[in-house]
Design brief:
The protein is built from 3 helices and 2 strands. The chain is mainly α. The chain has one domain. The chain has a two-stranded antiparallel ribbon. The chain is elongated. InterPro entries: Uncharacterised_RAQPRD. It comes from Hyphococcus luteus. This is Conjugal transfer protein.
């Protein structure tokens, strides 16, 4: 994550130091769009940080799981999907001009029934 943030900061510094031609001067609309895009990127970077707290909560819940239960929560599936979401956010933040891409759909079913029970 820090690499992505550093890249954004470095890109901003390079762009800020480059002289603008008259046609590149920001208009009020383009300046507002740029601020909006930056705000979006900052919010997504904060979301990635929040995933760390969520992962700690998931580990805590898993540690409290009853062993030998017939029905249990699939923590591995949840972690895999969180990883997929984080990857998508990181790829968006790391690319200068993100391109649309497809991702595997999330399962969203985390209840497992142990047939042996």
């Amino acid at each position: 994550m820090m690499r992505g943030i550093r890249a954004v900061i470095a890109s901003g510094l390079v762009l800020a130091a480059a002289p603008l031609r008259a046609e590149e001067m920001p208009t009020p609309d383009s300046a507002a769009a740029q601020r909006s895009a930056e705000a979006e990127r900052e919010a997504l970077a904060r979301a990635l940080q929040e995933f760390q707290a969520i992962e700690r909560l998931i580990a805590d819940a898993e540690a409290r799981r009853l062993s030998g239960a017939r029905i249990y929560f699939d923590y591995d599936a949840l972690r895999a999907e969180l990883t997929q979401v984080k990857l998508g956010i990181r790829q968006y933040l790391d690319e200068r001009r993100p391109q649309p891409r497809t991702f595997e759909p999330l399962e969203a079913s985390y209840v497992v029934v142990d047939p042996a029970q």
